[in-house]
Amino acid sequence: MKIFSYVFVPVVLLALTACETRTEYGKCVGLGERQDPKLEYKLSSRNITLGVIFIELIAPPIIVVTDETFCPTGPSYTAG
Asked: Which contiguous run of DSSP H or E holds residue 74?
């Protein structure tokens, strides 16, 4: 059991630190969070890929979906 925790904990931490949480325009948001209308957002393929790769670990996909699904890419040209 000790070997499992020596392997499991670092892998989860690596997955979570590899996720993109901010860009130069601001913080990434999850599915239920409000997006700033002054910013353009896009789906973070890097975070989604990491969530799929580490799906068996439970924590990384949950954090990606709730906190880091969409990342701002620049100012919105449709906001007035």
From this structure: strand 70-75
* Long-range residue pairs from 58-61, CB within 8 A, at least 24 positions apart, any chain: 59/12, 59/15, 59/16, 60/12, 60/15, 60/16, 60/19
In this structure, the chain runs to a length of: 80
Interatomic CA distance for residues 32 and 52, integer angstroms: 19
DSSP 58: S
Q: Whole-model pTM?
A: 0.67
Tens of pLDDT, residues 28-47? 898 888 999 999 999 888 88
Rounded (5°) CA angle 8-62-30: 140
What distance separates the 2 farthest-apart alpha carbons in the chain? 57
